[in-house]
Amino acid sequence: MENKKILFVEDSPTMRRIIGNSLKKLGIKEATEAENGVDALEKIQKEDFDLILTDWNMPEMNGQELVEHVRKMDKYKSIPILMITTRGMEDDVMTAIKSGVNGYMVKPFTPELLKKKMIEIFAV
Ligand SMILES: [Mg+2]
Fold this sequence. Notes:
There is one protein chain. The protein is α/β, with parallel strands linked by helices. The chain has helices spanning 13-25, 37-46, 63-71, 90-99, 111-123; strands spanning 5-9, 30-34, 51-54, 81-85, 103-106. Strands 2-1-3-4-5 form a 5-stranded parallel sheet, sandwiched between helices. Helix 2 (37-46) packs parallel to helix 3 (63-71). Residues 11-12, 55, 57-58 line the site of magnesium ion (MG).
């Protein structure tokens, strides 16, 4: 898992720092951040990633719209996507799953939970 190239998409600078630090703690060597869905789409066109972690609520393009775009791209139609959000209602989880995420995690989270979710995703 340490050699996976990860893109994490999050509009809150504080949350970006927390996610970045968590990934470092898990030994991830290559992690790139994006501020919203538009920024993420630009970055995945320039580089290849193995996993996308994305927030839901973001300006410009939210996480659900991002997932829908990514799933239409040949190169990324089956890339693992983990959604990390404050939206923890059952309806939200169902909506996210329908739009094509592979995993779902509600904030706040621990690095250990992030690790568990990532292991689950890569094990499929
Ligand atoms: Mg947000």
